[in-house]
Each structure stands twice: as C-alpha cells, then as structure tokens.
Design goal:
InterPro entries: FBXL15_LRR, Leu-rich_rpt_Cys-con_subtyp, LRR_dom_sf. There is one protein chain. The protein has 15 helices and 17 strands. By secondary structure, it is α/β, with parallel strands linked by helices. The chain has a 17-stranded parallel beta sheet. Helix 10 links the parallel strand 11 and strand 12 (321-323). It is globular, with a radius of gyration of 25 Å.
C-alpha cells in the first residue's frame, strides 16, 4: 500500500508512478492515495494508470478518482478480460489478462452509468467498494438510482458490497434510491456476505429488512445515517437463519434498545457498533452481556449510566475494544463498576475511548491505572477534569506491566486541565511503550517546547500529535516530520 504526497510536477509524479508499476511484475494488491497537487489534479493523477498496471492485479484501491476516469479504467480492464475469454486473432503484448476480484474507488460522484459499466466489464468481481464525495447536489441524470442497484445483479460472484456518500464536502445523500432499489438489490445479490450502505436517506425499514431477510449468508451489515431505519427493520430477525458476525448502525436516530435485544439472538456476533444511536439505554445491556463472542462494542452518545456498565461487567464478554465516547451519564463510578468486579472484560480490554465525557475525572483514570488491565489505546480527549495527576498515575503504572500490555497510544487532546509540567512524566523511564501522544488544544501543544524536543531526542519513534487528530492519526493524511504531526 502506498499513500503518496507530492508537491512536484504532476507529470513528473505520473512518470515516476509508471516506472514503479512497470517494475512490479508480480503485484496482486495495490492501494494508492494521492494528495498534494490540489483537488482536481489529485483526481486526475490516475488517468494513465491503466497503461502500467501489472496484469497480476487482483485487488485495486484508488483515491481520489474522477468518474470519467473510472469509466476509462474499468472499460480497459474489462476489455482485457474479454480478450482472455475470447482472444482475438491479433493481440498486442499490452492486452494481457486481468483477474480483478476487488475494486475500491473514492469518486466525485457515483452514477447509474458507472455501476452498469462495472457490472458489464467486471462480471467476476467479488468485492465492490464505492464512495463518492460530491461538492454539490448531483443532477438527476448524473446520480445513483434504483436502476443502478438493479444492475449489480449481473455480478453473480459478488459477496462484498459497499456504497456510501460522504458528507464532508456536501450534506447530500442518495435521494434517488428508495425501497424499490433495495428490493432489486436483495433479489439480485442474494449471495452477499458483507453489505455497507451510507447516505441512503430515502430507504425505510422495508428496504433494509429485505437485505437482512434475503441474504442468508450475510455476516457483516453496516448502515450509516439512515433517517428512516428503525427497530421495525429487525423485528423478524429471530425468524430467519442469522450468520451475522458484525453489525454497525451509525447515526441512525430511530434505533433503540429494542433493536439490540433482537440482534442479541445472533450468538456469533463479534462486533456491535451503535455509534450515534442516542436512544440506546441500560435496558439492552443485559442482552449484550450474553454475547459470549463480542470483542468490539461502540456505544458513542448512548443514554447509558453507571448502573448499565455494572451489568456489562458481570457478563462473560471478551471485549477488547470499548467506546463510551459522549456517554454523558457515565461517571468515574461507572468505570470502577466496569473494571473492578473481576469480570471477563477487565481481563480482555485493550482499547478504551472515554472522550467527551464530562463525568470522567482523575478518579476514573486512577481506577484504570490501579486495575492493572492491559490497555494499549486510551482516549480521554475533551475530558476537562483530567489533570496532571492522571498522567502521573498512568506513567507510574507502566513499568509494572508486560511489554505487550504497555500503553501505546494516549489521546489527551483538549484536556484543558493539564499543565505543561505533566510532560515530565513522558520522559524516560515512564511510558516505555508509548508510540503516539495526542496533545492538541492543550498547554502542552507547542513545537518550540524544549521538553518535547528533549523527549523526541530520547524517543525518536514517539509521535507527538499537535493538531487534534483522532488517536493514531489513522486517516493517513497527516504529514509526519521529525516526530510531530
């Protein structure tokens, strides 16, 4: 995988990219992100990539790509594929066969014509991941409709589908896709094992339920920002074979605890992400506590309390990743309930997000440090009552832990109670395993701070994030220089 940033000539960049690709004769998987030239130039950077792609490519991910260039790319690959099936009398050395099975594109817009071209040119596709980021509302003839979804039925080998409209550039959704589009998709693609849908604001319970009920092999189901998705979509879930392993319902305001109780019937569930579903309450936590295979739980913004965490702690949940971000009714007492009763979760937890929680203070962090649990990633961003005492407690605890269980990433962004003096606890020998420290929007965030420079000289592998990125700067677009971001 390559993530490329460049401010040189776009033509020079394209030439260097071509040389690299023509030298990788056995490449099977290629993921390319490009930035640095400007939006339009970045999106045009892949115009000529098809001429240099090794024919061994099976998985291709490109970001960003203009829709018009995607047409050219897909048709060229499809043309090569057809020549493999029905070889012409004369073929040049260029037209070697492609065996593309997975395609992922981030585009300016997803249209019916694009989907139809993909299904016609790449009939053996197994995974398709398309995301668009339109700057304005697409015209009716240049948008995705139910007809486009229907065309996906031609890809008989398709097992993974992701269609999302990002809202970063424009607060838009797929307004021309309704329940009928989902009915057609569910009938044509019954072999789907993974479905990810984002921005389908006109689809109701009936449309989403059609996918759940028709795709009997479905293991992963994700829906984002669905205004009309409610508990009714999951009402009949207990009456059908359910192989669900991962369920993500993000920012679906009508989802309540009743949906969680229905999902709990899937005993194989490993990931449950309910981020932004604010009507989730304590009443469903007992059902969650019965999921013996659950390893990741996201309750961002949920209406749960300390009592609910006590119920969660009493179950045999092997949760490794727990997000309680924005749970305003959870306090330090809830953290104590969660970690100090000796339940399974206190032994398995490695990632904990307590960001934006007004009820968390030094007492909660001291509980974490004293519990002796193997937290690797800890986020307490925008916890205003976290002070230097928390940093000291975490620093003092680290030497007693095994290397594999040391804190690797710590997010203190916007913890306004911290003073510059807390940086002394980041020096050796404390935090021996720390690789990333987020201190944006705090008194610590100064590139000219001599203490930060001293620490960086001691630990060149430690990255200080001064810009408020999420933990680990996982979006991959920040610029790293001398240990700072």
């Amino acid at each position: 995988m390559l993530e490329l940033a460049d401010k040189e000539s776009p033509h020079l960049f394209e030439n260097n990219l071509a040389i690299m690709l023509t030298s990788c004769l056995q490449l099977e998987s290629l993921s390319l992100k490009i930035r640095g030239f400007g939006v339009e130039v970045d999106a045009c950077a892949f115009q000529s990539i098809i001429f240099f792609l090794p024919s061994t490519i099976k998985s291709l991910k490109l970001q960003p790509v203009l829709e018009r260039d995607a047409f050219f790319l897909i048709r060229r690959i499809g043309r090569n594929l057809m020549e493999t099936v029905q070889p012409p009398i004369l073929t040049s050395s260029y037209y070697s066969s492609f065996n593309l099975r997975s395609l992922s594109l981030v585009l300016d817009v997803i249209t019916d014509e694009l989907l139809i071209t993909i299904t016609a040119s790449l009939p053996f596709l197994v995974e398709l991941d398309l995301e668009d980021r339109p700057n304005t509302e697409p015209l009716a003839r240049l948008d995705l409709t139910s007809s486009g979804l229907q065309s996906l039925g031609s890809c008989h080998h398709l097992t993974g589908l992701s269609l999302t409209r990002c809202r970063h550039n424009h607060q838009g959704t797929f307004k021309r896709v309704n329940d009928m589009g989902m009915f057609l998709l569910s009938e044509g693609c019954k072999g789907l094992e993974s479905v990810r849908l984002g921005g389908f604001s006109k689809v109701s319970d009936a449309g989403f339920a059609a996918i759940l009920l028709s795709c009997h092999s479905l293991k992963k189901f994700e829906v984002r920002s669905a205004s009309f998705l409610s508990d009714l979509a999951f009402h009949d879930l207990t009456g059908v074979p359910c192989a669900l392993v991962e369920v993500r319902l993000l920012w679906c305001r009508l989802i309540t605890s009743e949906t969680v109780k229905k999902l709990a019937s899937s005993r194989n569930l490993e990931v449950l992400d309910l981020g932004g579903c604010k009507s989730i309450a304590d009443t469903c936590l007992r059902s969650i506590s019965c999921l013996r295979k659950l390893t990741a739980l996201n309750l961002t913004g949920a209406d749960i309390t300390d009592s609910g965490l006590s119920i969660l702690a009493q179950g045999n949940l092997p949760i490794m990743n727990l997000c309680l971000r924005g749970c305003k009714r959870v306090t330090d007492k809830g953290i104590s309930h969660l970690l100090c009763v000796g339940g399974t979760i206190s032994q398995s937890l490695t990632t904990l997000d307590l960001g934006y929680m007004p009820g968390i203070s030094d007492d909660g962090i001291l509980t974490i440090a004293a519990a002796g649990i193997g937290i690797i990633d800890l986020c307490v961003r925008s916890c205003f009552y976290v002070t230097d005492a928390s940093v000291e407690a975490l620093a003092r605890k680290q030497p007693d832990q095994e290397k594999s269980k040391q804190l690797r990433r710590l997010d203190l962004c916007n913890c306004i109670g911290l003073s510059v003096d807390s940086l002394r606890w980041v020096k050796r020998p404390s935090f021996r395993g720390l690789h990333w420290l987020g201190i944006g929007q705090t008194r610590l965030a100064s590139k000219g701070n001599p203490v930060i420079t001293e620490i960086h000289n001691e630990r060149p592998w430690l990255t200080f994030c001064l810009d408020g990125c999420e933990i680990g700067c996982h979006d991959g677009w920040q610029f790293h220089e001398s240990g700072f971001i």
